[in-house]
Amino acid sequence: MYNLIVVGGGPAGLAAAYSAWSSGLRDILILERDKELGGILNQCIHNGFGVKRFGEALSGPEYAARFEDMVASTGVEVKTDTMVLDIGKDKTVYAVNPQDGYVAYPTKSVILAMGCRERTRGAISIPGTRPAGVFSAGTAQRFMNIDGYMVGKRVVILGSGDIGLIMARRMTLEGAKVLACVEVMPHSSGLRANIARCLNDFDIPLMLSHTVTDIRGDKRVTGVTVSAVDENLRPIPGTEQDFECDTLLLSVGLVPENELTKSAGIALDPRTRGAVVYENRETDLEGVFACGNVLHVHDLVDFVSEEAEFAGRAAAEYVRFGEKTKDFYSVKTSGGVTYTVPQKIRKGLGNEKIHLYLRVNRTLAKANLVLKRDGEELMRFRKSHLAPGEMQSIEFEACALEKAGSGDEIEVVLEEN
């Protein structure tokens, strides 16, 4: 029997396994469905990864290689080309691969680190024909960076997520003409740095409060129609603009890869589409933890690794000492905070550090994030810039939650400054 099985060998899975090993846990197995470790980082050949974690700007493969080397220096067992099919209530992990066939792996704990996937055209219901030339931004990135295939020459990008912004720059550098990046919301969903480096530096227009309302073409895309939208995100008649292009890239959001989580009966948060977790990233299935993009979509891989390290240490602690108390505070949101992770914080943790991640629903130059209990303020955190496309984090000692009030709910409130 293993002490820990990590499902997923991307940045979250690698960091979680190494953290658990460093915390003294042994008999650890990583199961990865691809033929190599590293996950999505293998196709992210641009730099900028690892500034927070390693103090230098690395490419995606370089960042992944750092953690692969760290894991290789331990006794962690790795099985690639292995698809996990199910996780039982007793935490048995059922998987299949070409060498072993169908295998049941009994284990004392599990960390879910399956990452996320892109939303597709079907999820956003764009009208028009279905010719070749419509790609998700991540698919186009893989074609170009792994397979060496140029997906198009005249490009429109729908959505301003970070992958779409990065692909705007990538395609421009490869000789394509990116006509516009179209975003249905009145604000970008990408990082400010990526807007500056990937759009502004190449004079690519960002059309906020616009969307694609038609795709034209028979065998190949020949053009798209872009329309402005109103405050209800409905196209405004008479605002149509036609773009002649051969390619449409979709960067319309990422969704946690949570089929395994759902099949295991683990509760999901409808806002994050990831598991509901305690402060140590344990789900409501005892001994099963979640971290990284399968829990909630991150902006920076450094935060993915940081959160995975929490989960790895927690899994090691669980195997040694068993589950902590189930008595907890529920974390609620208001005033523009859209979600928090964790959603539950156990009581009686003393001065243990709590790392709370969250997102807001509007852009503010200055604001306060306030924690309250029974309406009484516990603490506040001043922020110089908040935006929906940029995840925020706050850190505090668990005992601070007991300074005021007597209820079982902690409220996180956004207050404009």
Describe it for me?
The protein is an alpha/beta fold and 417 residues long. It folds into 3 domains: 1-118 and 254-324, FAD/NAD(P)-binding domain (3-Layer(bba) Sandwich); 120-252, FAD/NAD(P)-binding domain (3-Layer(bba) Sandwich); 326-417, Immunoglobulin-like, CATH 2.60.40. It is 21% helix and 32% strand. It has helices at residues 11-22, 51-54, 60-72, 121-124, 137-145, 162-173, 192-199, 259-263, 301-321; strands at 4-7, 28-31, 77-79, 83-87, 93-97, 101-105, 110-112, 116-118, 134-136, 154-158, 177-183, 206-208, 210-217, 221-228, 241-244, 247-250, 254-256, 288-290, 328-334, 337-341, 344-346, 353-360, 367-373, 376-383, 392-397, 409-416. The strands form 7 sheets. A 5-stranded parallel beta sheet has the order 3-2-1-7-18, covered by helices on one side. The longest helix is centred in the C-terminal third of the chain and has 21 residues, at 301-321. The radius of gyration is 22 Å and the shape is globular. The relative contact order is 0.13. The model has no long low-confidence stretch (mean pLDDT 93).
The helix content is 10-25%
Rg over alpha carbons: 22 Å
Strand content: 25-35%
Mean pLDDT level: 93
Question: What is the structural class?
Answer: alpha/beta
Q: Give the tally of structural domains.
A: 3
Number of helices: 9
Any low-confidence stretches, pLDDT <50, length ≥5?
Answer: none
How many strand units? 26
Specify the biggest β-sheet: 5 strands, parallel
CATH topology of the largest domain: FAD/NAD(P)-binding domain
Shape: globular
Strand order of the largest sheet: 3-2-1-7-18
